[in-house]
Each structure stands twice: as C-alpha cells, then as structure tokens.
Design brief:
Order of helices and strands: HEEHEEHEEEHEEHHEEEHEHHEEEEEE
Radius of gyration: 20 Å
Shape: globular
Number of domains: 3
Helix content: 10-25%
CATH topology of the largest domain: Gyrase A, domain 2
Number of strands: 19
Amino acid sequence: MSDVIRPYLYDIHVAHGAKIVPFGGWDMPLQYSQGTVAEHLATRHDATVFDVSHLGTVRCDGNGLFDHLQRTLTNDLRRIGPGQAQYTHLLNNDGGVVDDIIVWWVGEHEFDVMPNASNTSGVTAVLPGVDITSTRCVLAVQGPRARERVAAVDPRFAQVPRFAVHRFDFGSVEVRVAGTGYTGEDGIEIAVPNDAAGDLFEKIIAAGVQPAGLGARDTLRLEAGLPLHGHELSPAITPLQARLGWVIGWDKEEFVGREALERERARGPHRLLTAIATSTRQPLREGADIVRDGHVVGQLTSGNFSPILEHGIGLGFVEGGAEVGEPLSISMRGREVSASVVKSPFVRKAK
C-alpha cells in the first residue's frame, strides 16, 4: 500500500481540474486546467489560492517553550512578540539546515511551528509539541489583489499585517491567519480546521481568486529568489552559504549548530548562493554545471523559465561567490548557454 497522503481537499481539487502529483509524501495539485504559466501570471497580477496543507504544523503550548525554541532554532524570538511570525532554521551540529521553518507565535505560551512537508517528524523529535497537520488545512492566498479579494469572504482576513498572526472565530471554528507566503507577493495563509476548509476554499474562489498548484508556486518562489529545502537548503548547506545570515540570532547564547557557524563565519563560506540569468527563453535546469573561464565552479540548485522576465533564471552555489554582472556559462546537455550573475530577487513584488 502507498504511504502517500491525500490532502483533505483532494476531491475538491480534482473537481476543479487539478493535475495531481506526489510531493513530499503527499498527493498535491501541480496545476489546474488553466496551466502553470496562467496561474503564475494571475499571482503576479491579481490573486490565487494554493492549498499548502502538506506543510506541517507542530503545536507547542505551555510554559518554557520560548526558552526551548530559543535554544533550538537559529533566529531570535526576542525580535518579535506574540501575534507575529518569524522565519528561522533548525540546524544540525555541523551548521547544515535540517529544515527552514516559519514560527507563528500565537499566544504568550503558544507557538505553531510550520516545517516543510517531509521534515515534520524531524521537528517533533526536537520540540515538545504535537503534530496537528492532519487536523487542519492551510490555504495561501497570494497576489497584489489578495487582500481585496479575501475581504469579500471576511474583512478580517484582509486586515492581518505582513508577518502578523491573528486568530478569530470563522463561523463555528477558530481560524489562524498569518501575513506570510512563498511567492514574493503580498498575501495571507489561513489555517482552518478540516471540516470548514472546503467551504472556505470555495468561498475564496467565488470571490474571484484563481486556484493554483505547485508548479506556479515553484516558479514564483524562484523569481522571488526564495530558497527551497532540498535545493538551496539542506543538511549539507549552511545559512551562511545560502546568504541567509539574517536568520541567525548571534546575540543568543545558544542554538543548535552555533559553533560550526561561528567557525564558518570566521573563515568565510567556501561557496555562495548566486542568482543567474540568461538572455534566451531556454529554461535553466537543476544540476547543470556553472562554468567560469572553462572551469566548473558550481551547480544550479534550481532553474526554470521566468514567465515575467521571459528568459531563463536559476539559483546555484558558486565557489567563492561571484559579482553581479560577471559573465558565466551554464553547461546543459553537452552545450554551454551564456549567462550572467544578477541581483536577487529576479522579480520584485508588484506595487
């Protein structure tokens, strides 16, 4: 028997024309009938809704949790407070990223820790929390008109500021809403109990929000220069190599992996994540070699065609880093494609 998990809204996605693919141990929508590019453009110009219920939720509730999270995760919770969200990392002792995580600080002693799909068990192993992933759905409404659209469903959704966390009653259930997302656009993520999720999903679509799948989610996050665990982050990649030093709370006395990061900071990372673009429509692909002056200096960790820029873009690690504007080549299938180093993100949020 298959161990792949079907999201609670599986049948609704199929009814809306979703193509389902396995991802992180789940069967998730890759795209709907309109296709990935249309969903991508709708997110950049209007609003879309993604089912991201494959992300985990580890609910941590009780005294002493603040100190435990501070000792375990890289970022410093003293930078925020209850009612706010924070991006952070869980490291191994070598400084590699076991997972990148969003922490929703819901109440004084209550935290919803949101790991990636396949990493939830690893988080529950180090945090004193309960895995409630199977009891709720998470709907991400993203795009420059996201707040305008969801206000027609409930005006309170639109009032949740960026990186804030609010909870309130929605009908007969409690929902938790954070001003977070993974597209580079404005938007919110709504955690809703399963029994109310289908009704909420349909109401969001009825408000003029187009459903979108993992295909658009990936091209959107790539245009926004956002890392994906297993690609730009992994147990063999440190936050410093990924240019994410801002998620490290150096003022804290302790967190897992600190000693290894201190050593790397002192000597400097031997490789750095680099944004690379071509002038052609050929998509760049993960695993392709990055070439400088005839020598391989790294590999692409993500690559694709940018629907907004209409040319190839990619992220990859370059030995010693590279300066913006520097010419490079990408070796794909025996031929080299001319490219150059560009500033990340490739596409900035719509005004």
